[in-house]
Amino acid sequence: MANENIKVLIDEKTLAKRIAEIGAQITKEHAGREVILVPVLKGSFMFAADLARAIDLPTNIEFLGLQSYAGTKSTGVVQITSDLTRSVADKDVIIIEDIVDTGLTMTYLLENLQTRKPRSLKIASLLHKPARSKVHVDIDYLGFTIEDVFVIGYGLDYDGRYRNLPYVGVLEL
Ligand code: PRP
After folding, report:
1. What is the CB < 6 Å shell around ligand 1?
2. Whose CA is nearest to atom 16 of ligand 1?
3. Is residue 74 very low, low, confident or very high in pLDDT (cuts 50, 70, 90)?
4. pTM of the prediction?
5. Residue 104 CA, ligand 1 centroid: distance in Å
6. Which of 50, 92, 98, 101 is catalytic?
7. Among 98, 106, 165, which residue has the most ligand 1 atoms within 8 Å of its CB, making it the best to mutate?
8. What CATH number does the domain located at 12-148 have?
9. Sequence-ordered strand ranges (E) for the chain
10. Burial of residue 138 (number of CB atoms within 10 Å: 0-12, 13-18, 19+)
11. 101 tagged catalytic
């Protein structure tokens, strides 16, 4: 694949090291419990796959499909396109996201999942872009804080492409 116009922002080694640390922290903080990992599609799929392997606990994985309504991404109006397949009542749940940008999607998700009465509800996000924040979100397990740049790769897309890059990059258009 020709990737000349992509600058590597976070390379594979750096991702792996940080994800191993987050996995160890989650393992320690949930010792003796089962955790329900909830990756939010599509962007989190690669982070979720690596993070799940870094967690040494009994786990279940329940994917959540979300879509921003066309043209309303900045308002946080989102639609669940594929819901969890089982109840999370009384369970220890960790939402897995690729990025918290405005924070609106996560705020919606937290409200929605709280109504399902989990025992605990935590957030793991690979990236946080505070420059874009519209609403504060407490990220329990954060990979990296980034500048206000357009990131792709490692699950993140530009018009549906680049999700398969093994690193986080910046697309220089
Ligand atoms: C991205 C990301 C979050 C959301 C964060 O999803 O995965 O769900 O945007 O943005 P916010 O903090 O401004 O709400 P996107 O809509 O790009 O869909 P995708 O995961 O399918 O790529």
Report:
1. 40-43, 66, 68, 76, 97-106, 157
2. 68
3. low
4. 0.95
5. 9
6. 101
7. 98
8. 3.40.50.2020
9. 6-10, 35-41, 59-61, 64-68, 78-82, 92-100, 120-128, 141-145, 151-152, 168-171
10. exposed
11. yes
pLDDT (tens digit, 9 = 90+) per residue, 77-124? 788 999 999 999 999 999 999 999 999 999 999 999 999 999 999 999
User: Helix (H, G, I), strand (E, B), or coil: what is residue 24?
Assistant: helix
Measured from the CA of 104, which atom of ligand 1 is nearest? 14
Burial environment of residue 22 by CB neighbours within 10 A (0 to 12, 13 to 18, 19 or more): buried
CA angle centred on 9, ends 130 and 124, rounded to 5°: 50
How many angstroms separate the CA atoms of 153 and 137, rounded?
Answer: 23
